[in-house]
Amino acid sequence: MKDFDNLEQRLDLLLGRFDVLHAQNADLKERLELKELELKSLKEKIERLDAEKSIARDKVTNILQKIEGLTQSA
User: Fold this and answer.
1) In angstroms, rounded to a whole number, what is the distance separating the alpha carbons of residues 51 and 59?
2) Rounded distance, CA 31 to CA 2, Å?
3) What is the pTM of this model?
4) Could you tell me how far CA 72 lies from the centroid of its own chain?
5) Is the sign of the CA dihedral 24, 30, 34, 36 positive or negative?
6) Environment class of 39 (CB within 10 Å of its CB; exposed 0-12, middle 13-18, buried 19+)
7) What is the tens place of the pLDDT at every residue in 7-43?
């Protein structure tokens, strides 16, 4: 009978650990999803900033060309 009690205690311990790990796993999955959304958002922001940088570079190049044209014709 003592062996069954011992086995029952070990099983209860094991099930308790399983519940804890299951809860931790669910929490980690949720945190991972949030981080993936954050990563997606940051990638989109980088793409937007790269596009803005390209537009600004083109405008500066255009302005410099106009200035160069003015100085050459003067």
Assistant:
1) 12
2) 43
3) 0.67
4) 51
5) positive
6) exposed
7) 999 999 999 999 999 999 999 999 999 999 999 999 9
